[in-house]
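2024-03-11 09:14:02 INFO worker-7 job=invfold-0412 stage=load source=structure_tokens
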């Protein structure tokens, strides 16, 4: 009986639900601690700031979740985001295309970058780390070349900024001024969750991460599905680029470096295993909020930025070590 009880506890510890619960508990603890430490933390404006800060990083993390579940990595999501923002600026501002067409074009530009990375990885057998590192530099360079080293402003299309900074909820419920970018994040999360849990792409994502060779031997075209997964990650990066451009009302070609690390950190903190085969969209969203709350809280407490980076790194190491312990048990 005692042995059965121990086995049950181990099973619970290994479960995805337990991982999500632990991450959510960590988020609540951070909220409580920072609220006690500073009366300014739990103010409505600051909470809105946290939600807005999570929007772009959260969207990037959604795409990275699929890649990491396959036991891969994508280091290019930050600069692909920038490239997509620049292309959106070119389509809307320089070419005069309608805003919806420009937005779709920007998102598809990100998807194309992801597809190219996936082709390098799946067809040419280049390790994901190297392939996406190369795409990081390529997309960064193209952003600078296409923009001619200058920001692209959306001053002639003020409605574009409303995509991120407007508030549909505020118009419906006066006083509830939640930026539209937050709603886009949650809508993207719902779509990502449906793809991961209800589609063939989602099933093969887990299968490839669990045992790629067995999946291949079962007759699955692993290379094609890998390309699709990296392309999907690129589409989410493209969406992140559109949101960033709308939030800043400009496409900043020098922006993007470092965002990939925040996205990967959010995914790992949310319980997705770097070894592949495990992960959830809900966990990723919780991880993204943990990152935003941590940075915001430390900033309110006037902790120097360099120490904020140190603390964030420590949290990521702790999350990975927790995953290692869970797998050993």
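2024-03-11 09:14:09 INFO worker-7 stage=emit residues=329
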């Amino acid at each position: 009986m005692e042995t059965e009880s121990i086995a049950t506890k181990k099973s619970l510890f290994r479960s995805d639900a337990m991982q999500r619960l632990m991450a959510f508990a960590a988020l609540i603890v951070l909220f409580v601690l920072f609220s006690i430490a500073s009366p300014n933390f739990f103010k409505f404006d600051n909470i809105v700031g946290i939600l807005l800060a999570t929007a772009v990083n959260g969207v990037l993390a959604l795409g990275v979740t699929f890649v990491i579940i396959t036991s891969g990595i994508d280091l290019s999501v930050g600069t692909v985001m920038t490239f997509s923002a620049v292309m959106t600026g070119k389509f809307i501002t320089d070419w005069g295309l309608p805003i919806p067409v420009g937005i779709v074009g920007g998102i598809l530009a990100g998807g194309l970058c992801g597809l190219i990375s996936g082709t390098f990885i799946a067809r040419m057998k280049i390790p994901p780390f190297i392939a996406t590192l190369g795409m990081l530099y390529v997309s960064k360079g193209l952003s600078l070349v296409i923009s001619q080293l200058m920001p692209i402003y959306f001053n002639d299309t003020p409605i574009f900024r409303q995509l991120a900074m407007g508030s549909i909820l505020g118009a419906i419920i006066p006083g509830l001024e939640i930026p539209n970018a937050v709603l886009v994040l949650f809508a993207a999360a719902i779509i990502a969750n449906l793809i991961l849990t209800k589609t063939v792409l989602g099933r093969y994502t887990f299968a490839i991460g669990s045992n790629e060779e067995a999946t291949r031997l079962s007759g699955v075209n692993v290379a094609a599905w890998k390309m699709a997964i990296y392309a999907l990650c690129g589409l989410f990066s493209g969406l992140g680029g559109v949101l960033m451009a709308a939030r800043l009302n400009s496409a900043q070609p020098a922006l993007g470096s470092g965002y990939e690390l925040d996205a990967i950190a959010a995914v790992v903190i949310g319980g997705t295993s770097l070894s592949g085969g495990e992960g959830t969209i809900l966990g990723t969203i919780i991880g993204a909020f943990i990152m935003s709350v941590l940075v915001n809280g430390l900033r309110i407490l006037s902790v120097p930025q360099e120490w904020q980076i140190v603390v964030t790194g420590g949290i990521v190491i702790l999350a990975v070590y927790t995953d290692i312990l869970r797998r050993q048990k």
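2024-03-11 09:14:09 INFO worker-7 stage=report msg="The beta strands are 152-153, 250-251."
2024-03-11 09:14:10 INFO worker-7 job finished
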